[in-house]
């Protein structure tokens, strides 16, 4: 019925389920083993570390736009991307791919020299 297998011995009564500290292992779901949960956590940590240079670039771009006192729409026009795309980057909802990262780097270097 389910595409995954539940761990054995995790049956809980309604009273046990109501207690928040009764979880057998924090952060894991009923169908995850402890190894799967740690692998998932490691995978998320690796992704965060991989995106850290992009996060720094976006923080620098936001700070530069604030110093220059320009709007996101003006910044998007200067960078050459749609306003909505830039908005999602600046709010860390999405990370730019390689072309977007290059555009941001060029914009930051070009306008940080002018300041």
TrEMBL record:
* Residue spans of biased composition, Basic and acidic residues class: 40-54
The record's annotation in CDD domains points to: HTH_XRE (cd00093)
**Segments for region (Disordered):** 1-54
Identification of the protein by name = Helix-turn-helix transcriptional regulator
Q: Which organism is it from?
A: Marinobacter azerbaijanicus
